[in-house]
Amino acid sequence: MNPTLNRRSFLGNTTLAGVSLATTSLFGQTAGGGKKLKVGLIGCGGRGNGALGDFIAAAKILGLDVEVTAVGDAFKPAADGTGKRFNVPADRCFGGYDNYQKVIATDCEYVLMATPPSFRPIHFAAAVDAGKHCFIEKPVAVDPVGARSVMATGEKAKAKGLAVVTGTQRRHQKSYLQNKARIDAGAIGEIKGGVVQWNGTVPWIKRRNEGESDADYMARNWLNFCETSGDHIVEQHVHNLDVAVWFLGRLPVSALGFGGRARRETGNMFDFFSVDYDFGDEVHIHSQCRQISGTQQNVGEMFTGTEGFCYGGGKLKGKDVSIPDIKVDNDNGQIQEHVDMIRSVQAGKPLNDAQRIADVTLVAIIGRMSAYTGQMIRWNDVTKNESSPFYNFACTPSALDFEKGNVKMPEEKPPVPGKA
Questions:
Q1: Are residues 218 and 143 in the same domain?
Q2: β-strands 254-260, 272-278: how paired?
Q3: Rounded to whole angstroms, how far apart are CA atoms 276 and 312?
Q4: What range does the domain containing 341 cover?
Q5: CA 280/CA 27 separation, integer angstroms
Q6: CA 120, CA 123: separation in Å to the nearest integer?
Q7: Are residues 17 and 147 in the same domain?
Q8: What pLDDT sits at residue 6?
């Protein structure tokens, strides 16, 4: 929970573990010796189908076959469609808000979770209790309570020897790995500041159907409700914030930001955020994200150092340095992250990203909370200071409310900080 982490150990405890395994064959053979991996999927939307395809592609790289034991989604037709696509028996395509329990109850070894972010803490806890290796899409929570739950579950997974890998694919991409290694070797000197951006459009919106329940409308239109997605600074921009934390090698001290809404047509989220993250030692990162059509679009990261600068996984200008040879199995980070997960399990050294992804999710959350309230949010406010009004903040309706049928939809209006 200490925001000051050694930059080298922060990297070494996460992605380099996967890379080192990726460069070494296991006993001179393919990783699994022909064993068929059994996997279940929770969440059958576009990202869930994509993650399952990526897992199968990763297994193929390692010479392994895959059996999809079960798929689940809140909406049964979505589960049925994915089941047909991946040859899953009809009686193992589960619907309803308790579908995750049925998927986990099968004989799968791995569980892929691509539900809306608000559901991930309880799904992750159930999977670890059942002894499953877990792939969780980012982010892993929408509020401080959920993020700390993921941290606790991650410790349980570690004690059980279970892998936990998350959908932060930049940490598995060669270009980003190389630039991170160069920065650690001093190529741009000490990072003194930077800008991280995700400026794009609203990926999609859903209109409410006549007679549709609050729960089903929110679940279908989850991307546009803070209670289910965390807002786009958490759901999407977390990728860029993750790179900032990774490259700096430490967590921020505080966040102070603003945002607003003028265009969004459904839900209760902001159109844009602008957040100043203070990383201590006079180092500030400007976080900027926007989802508005017809505006300049840009996604990426830029860091300025005392000896040069770096654009995420792109151009780096600074001192010539020597770094280790970095190899990956696939140029697609969304496939490579599954390769690294499977290989780590096969090698008996399971990766565990839980603490790291929960930390980064919290980084995004404090930015959102600051913009919504107009207040500075300190890291300790959500991790240590139990008397802070932000420490025990939990979004409602919660995942359990969906499961128990207690969902009351919030107004489709954004927060308004301050006074006129």
A1: no
A2: antiparallel
A3: 19
A4: 7-171+330-352
A5: 45
A6: 5
A7: yes
A8: 37
Q: How far apart are alpha carbons 135 and 10 in whole angstroms?
A: 20
Q: Where are the alpha helices (DSSP H) in 231-387?
A: 232-235, 238-248, 333-346, 354-373, 379-383
Task: Dig out the tokens for 295 from the structure.
Answer: 């505006």
Report the DSSP beta bridge partners of residue 165. 135
Which two structure tokens, joined as six digits, stand for 382?
């959500």
Q: Is residue 206 part of a domain?
A: yes
The region that residue 25 occupies, defined by phi over 0 for left and psi between -120 and 50 for alpha, beta otherwise, is beta
Number of domains in the chain: 2
- Beta-strand relationship, 36-42 and 316-317: unpaired
Distance in angstroms (rounded) separating the CA atoms of residues 292 and 271: 6
For residue 255, give the CATH number of its domain.
Answer: 3.30.360.10
Q: What is the pLDDT of residue 34?
A: 55
C-alpha distances in Å from residue 95, one per residue of 53, 71, 207, 229: 20, 9, 22, 20
Does 336 fall in a domain?
yes
Identify whether residues 115 and 211 lie together within a single domain: no
Each residue's pLDDT tens digit, 66-125? 999 999 999 999 999 999 999 999 999 999 999 999 999 999 999 999 999 999 999 999
179 within some domain: no
Whole-number Å distance between alpha carbons of 138 and 33: 31
Residue pair 85/103 in contact by the 8 Å Cβ criterion: no
Ranges of the chain whose pLDDT falls below 50: 1-33
Residues 385 and 259 occupy one common structural domain? yes
Regarding whether 345 and 323 lie in a shared domain, the answer is no
Q: Are residues 347 and 366 in the same domain?
A: no
For 217-264, write each residue's pLDDT tens digit.
999 999 999 999 999 999 999 999 999 999 999 999 999 999 999 999
The answer to whether residue 369 is domain-embedded is yes
- Name the DSSP class of 74: S
Q: Are residues 270 and 166 both part of a single domain?
A: no
- Enumerate the β-bridge partners of residue 127: none
Output the six-digit token pair for 289: 């994200």
What are the tokens at 287? 């976080």
The reported pLDDT for the residue numbered 118 is: 98
| Tokens encoding 41 | 């999927």
> For tokens 């309230």, what's the residue?
373
